[in-house]
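Notebook entry, cofactor series.
This is the third protein in the set we're modelling with a bound small molecule. For this one the ligand is fe (ii) ion. I'm keeping the input format identical across the series so the outputs can be compared line by line later. Sequence and SMILES below, as received.
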Amino acid sequence: MHYKVIEQAFTQTELDQFVTYWENNTDKIYHTNSMNKIQDPWDLPIVKEIVKPVLDKHFDTSLKNLGDNLYRHEYPYYPHVDISKSIYPCFNVLIPIAQQNPVEQHFLIYDQWVNQPIGATWLGEWYSKQEGDFDNNKKREYPLGDSVVEGIKGDQILEHLTIQGKEQALFKGLTGVALDFKPGNIIVFDSKHIHATGTMTGGWKMGLTLRFVGDYYEYF
Ligand SMILES: [Fe+2]
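Returned structure with ligand:
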């Protein structure tokens, strides 16, 4: 299995501390593509104090950290893969922290993966409209028919794995799971897998993502 959910790893008080931290540190927030982020969270004292001791129970956190973000956003994000500078194997650790409104919110992890150590974002019809390229997760068109995508077995569109408001063709051929974006849980997965936010209609959501060098299958 290329993903694992660790349930209720953090208390509400701990999650609230992150929300307060965010609101008190607006000067550190970096705004990009409708995503607001505080970068390199592994170096933040709040992460070392609250998150590291919990992660220590599940894997060796002295593994090299590759960054990622403490983030808050209100619009859904395209299917993508986070791999930077050809550094692979690595794995993603996602901690849902808070939602503006208590609506059902999903995080989509697809069975399909990239066969090269590259970051990618599939934009479909937005491919040509998006000027420039992204720093790491370089833009591509559709997963179906893309030579770097492995594991596609058909051309079905599974409704629960699509994002409302995004072009349906983006999801053609993808299979996988829609996990609960449940504050306090931890979702860990092999970084080579395509993933996306689910449909977002309930205002902002906030989370913490960390990425570590190491073989996911050795630890989980
Ligand atoms: Fe990601």
